[in-house]
Amino acid sequence: MRPFEPESTNPSRSIELNSIFAIVTAVGMLALGLLMRSNTLGSSILFRDQTNGIRAQIPAQWLLDTNGGTNYIFRAEDPNGQPFKTLIQVSIRTVGPDANPQNVVDSLNVIGPSRLSNYGVLSTEPSRLGEDEAIEITYYYVQTEPNPFVQAVPIVVQGVDLVVTRGNQAIIFTYRDGRDVFEQNRFYFENFLATVEY
Amino acid sequence: MLEYQLLSPEEEIEETFPYRRVWRALALEMGLLLLIVGVIYVLIQAGVLANQYTPTLSLVVAVLPIGLFYAVSVRRELQAIQPRSQLSVILLLSIIAANGVAWPFIHLVITPDHWLPEAGFFSRIIGYTLTLGIVGEITKYLVVRYTIWPQQIRMRLDGIAYSVPAALGYALIMNVQYILNEDPLLTSAIFRVVINVYLHIAAGAVMGYFLAELAINPNGPFYWFPMGLSLSAFLGSLYFVFRRVSISSGLGSRPLGGILLSIAFAILILGILSFIIENAEERAAARQGVRRIR
């Protein structure tokens, strides 16, 4: 880089302008960086399951698993989530023709402790998904590392199951994340619910 | 009879360089840091030290660059005829700014680990420049700009001399937070210390040069500081972009790849800066018709 030659401008004016523009440049660059971050985190891709009639936008760069068999339709996980990989999942259960979401929630509460370690329910609240009635159940459990050679402390996980019924099916939308970042990352789930069609 | 006496030629008194020599001290500090970390790495490989989470030793290594700075640079500064002042003030302010503002902002707002590592090549360059790079450089810039600038800048090398404690203070916080929050293995911790220190010294030196140049020639263009900030932020981000390439090796990994990259990166940037500064000082001396004291 070639140093500039002395000019006949006012030195104090030049220093003042440099100092101001340095701050302006830094603030501008940071604003662009945060905008880029927001766009990257908010970017999504379309997921479509024509067999089960589910269509939604899921976060781009997340790992998608559609091999859940009867357990789930699909599961999307944030590979960079620490210590728990943020999860969004959709599953379908067959219910009776006169079943309502509350019946499914009761069933989930019953089988919860057998599926998840130290399972406990925090709240059960009526909700809506679009124009449909839904019930939202918030719970927690403790996830322990299954591999004994990986020395890791158990993680407290918080989850939400949003249950809606469609004919003789109950669709369960699940969001799980580490307790500490549950609220911080919840916007992924909200964005997902805002775009889901079933 | 005439007597002749032999006269000895007039002895030219060589003027002593009145300031501390920056490049020598910096090279010695960086070399000693590398040497000590190398010894620890060899001890780990030999099984003398366990490669596990060792917070005490890791934190000692994190503080080591500052110890070396005092043992080499500050000690020599005190022996110089015209010592530079307020180096400790810059170091302290940099630590406070990094720990109080930069680190929380990076950790809570930018959260780079959530979105940058998986981004594409050019997105990573832009993303790191606009976030981690600019946060680091504006912090160091503000500390130097509003403490010793321009009254303590007598030559271009002063910009480098004052940028080093600012970089060391910033790197210290990044290293300590990494060790305390990520529970890294000993090898990861000592490698990260070297990488952060080399990286911030190199990028900070670029900003230091821009600061010194405007202090010496205050008629510079209005975009001189913004250009320095952007360039140093960009250079600092380049390391992160190429880190994956240097560490990955097929299906395996090269743990030494990252550290070798940071060494090459620092040598390249500091070498170019040294050439530019030497050239500028030489031309300034020729223009003023004075002899440079070396």
Quick description:
The complex is a heterodimer of chains A (198) and B (294). With 198 residues, chain A is α+β, with helices and mostly antiparallel strands. Chain A has helices spanning 11-42, 101-115, 186-195, and strands at 44-49, 54-59, 63-65, 74-77, 87-94, 120-129, 132-143, 155-166, 169-178.
Tell me about this structure.
The complex is a heterodimer of chains A (198) and B (294). By secondary structure, chain A is of the alpha+beta class. Chain A has helices at 11-42, 101-115, 186-195; strands at 44-49, 54-59, 63-65, 74-77, 87-94, 120-129, 132-143, 155-166, 169-178. The longest helix of chain A has 32 residues, at 11-42. Helix content of chain A is 29%, strand content 36%. Chain A folds into 2 domains: 10-42; 44-195, Mog1/PsbP, alpha/beta/alpha sandwich (Protein Transport Mog1p, Chain A). Chain A has a 7-stranded antiparallel sheet with strand order 3-4-5-9-8-7-6, sandwiched between helices. Chain A has a two-stranded antiparallel sheet with strand order 1-2. Chain B has one domain (51-280). Chain B has 8 helices and 2 strands. Chain B is globular, with a radius of gyration of 22 Å. Chains A and B meet through helix 1 of A and helix 4 and helix 7 of B.
Terminal Cα span of chain B: 48 Å
- CATH fold-level assignment of the largest domain in chain A: Protein Transport Mog1p, Chain A
For the largest beta-sheet of chain B, the strand count, sense and barrel status come to:
2 strands, antiparallel
Instruction: Give the oligomeric state.
Output: heterodimer
Counting H and I runs of at least 4 residues, what is the number of helices of chain A? 3
Mean pLDDT of chain A, to the nearest integer, reads 87
Please state the overall shape of chain A, judged from the principal axes of the Cα atoms: elongated
Order of strands across the main sheet of chain A? 3-4-5-9-8-7-6
CATH superfamily of the largest domain in chain A: Mog1/PsbP, alpha/beta/alpha sandwich
Number of strands of chain A: 9
Radius of gyration of chain A: 24 Å
Instruction: Detail the poorly predicted runs of chain A.
Output: none
